[in-house]
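WARN  no MSA supplied for this record, continuing single-sequence
INFO  ligand: iron/sulfur cluster
INFO  echoing inputs
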Amino acid sequence: MRSLRLVLGDQLHPRLATLTDLDPKIDTVLMVEVWEEATYVRHHKQKLVLVLSAMRHFAAELRARGVAVDYVALEDPGNTGSFTGEVARAIARHRPDRIVVTEPGEWRVEAMMRGWEERFGRPVEIRDDTRFLCPRPVFARWAEGRGTLRMETFYRAMRRRTGFLMEGREPAGGRWNFDHDNRRRLPPGHAVPERRRFPPDAVTREVMVLVARRFADHFGDLDGFAWPVTRSEALAALRHFLDDCLAGFGDYQDAMRAGTPFLYHGLIAPALNLGLLDAEEICRAAEERWREGTAPLNAVEGFIRQILGWREYVRGLYWTRMPDYPETNALNATRALPWFYWSGETAMACLAECVRDTKAHAHAHHIQRLMVLGNFALLAGLAPRQVEEWFLVVYADAYEWVELPNVHGMALWADGGLLGSKPYAASGAYIDRMSDYCRACAYDVKAKTGDTACPFNYLYWNFLSANEDRLRGNPRLAMPYRTLDTMAPSRRKAIVAEAARFLDALEMSQGHPDGERA
Ligand code: DLZ
Ligand code: SF4
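INFO  complex generated
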């Protein structure tokens, strides 16, 4: 039986389910660069380069292994610009008996694929994505009948299921979670490891020219592109992380420092989410470092939890809740995304720094995303759909299955607590504790009201006040509500007025440094 095997741009794994039983004598692999995928959101320029360059390299590697690859480039004459259109053309070229694909990372694309059998009059086999450690039906069974879903419960089940960091039935070190050890601020003058860069080769440079020409108006700098685009580069990036960064990752995973965007972070999510690495090999490699004594357990457990726990959990949740998941807006947030999310032009130094990093690298680490950019969006009541689209656009590792639950559920609490037990709201004190951003800021992080007061301060109390009906009963917010209750009514009124003034100015896009358009 002759198969046409479609490999998507984020499925570039040598043992992808689509390829396992490939017969090089009769089968063809189809890879297509399509306008629809490049523009359904206006991806950061570096994300476009990463996906297209990695696709081209992967096709070359398959060909070197003797596989027939039919590769349609973005500007090839006749390119219809969509997956469906390109599969139709490829069927006419190859006359396959069936089409083989692996489940995609987006509900939108899977819905498209489900229509192909009828449309093309051939069997379409959609295979499980074995790059993930928790198959979709296993997650669905785990979630079924549970009133609330909690990552920690799922993570423990996954530790037991896979045996990572287990000693018999018990967690290694006697604890499941070492998060308490992982909240250190970076000491002044602390030198962080120099990070390995992967300068563009000829293939990547060609894609950079294409992106500069065809996507000039997309967000992001192109010049600093240094992401791994092949499996061997991705493995080198992983080794560099394990050798030079993992040991310090745990302690400083929540720290932020101006001018130092990467710290001890993995920087492997773009490669992992493309398929250049897989979750199992990463967890195995990290665990090995602990077993051989070169990385402490708090670092290794924290790292493995991100991949085995959090990443698998958000994917499971995405697939069990789509397509309705993004429709909720539990806190009725409707404010438009301020322009400074694109320009970085705001007097709030923390936000400016995080947008600058994002623009320069298509990257910001999880605390920058959650506790600065996401926190502001939560406190300012920005419309979830706009914030979600921004996060999907700007990060090199962002695909909807991972971005949507992280933003809609975790950062914005728009799902009303399905994914996370409380909104991750914080005042300026948190940002000041975990970073050095406040030192260079026009605002005063210690001031609670007044012209120079840090906006995060009054926005935080205003948020709790405005959403009291919805949030007061949450046991994890009992403490801040107790503090709010002890506030003199006049003080509370001043905070609400200050927040209203700030948010009005933001909305009007005038009259306030943070509202001005670039
Ligand atoms: C993100 C992306 C981009 C920019 N371009 C392509 C492309 O031209 N061809 C392709 O196969 N995939 C691309 N992708 C990745 C897809 O958008 C991704 O496979 C779906 O969103 C499902 O996760
Ligand atoms: Fe951000 Fe407030 Fe600190 Fe300025 S003072 S950097 S706005 S937290």
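Residues 297-321 form the longest helix (25 residues).
INFO  checksum written, moving to next record
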